[in-house]
# Entry
Amino acid sequence: MISVFSTRKSLLAIYTLLALLLASGKWVSGQNCGCASNLCCSQYGYCGTGDAYCGNGCQGGPCYAPQGGNGVKVSDIVTDAFFYGIANQAPSGCPGRRFYSRDAFLQALDSYPSLGLLFCGRL
# Structure
């Protein structure tokens, strides 16, 4: 026969363990990049700020943009023929077909200087 005392003691142990697991869940998830928006996710999956987190290998957050680049400009790749060749594939009745011009696209792209310089994920 199981005593009430032993059952309460077991339940207390289970509740304590559950509380510890729930409390530590925040730290465990941080190690897999559930970072706040103002923190970077390091190459090892930890949240923080500074070079170790936001520099080389940064997986997400406000990562530092790589310096320099490969010297290729988007405007050299996205020529008029390339841009309008894609845009003209939309049906003629599509309202968004002429929503952007190439110049408007390139101007909007200037708002995101690190676009194409950062890679998050696997190839």
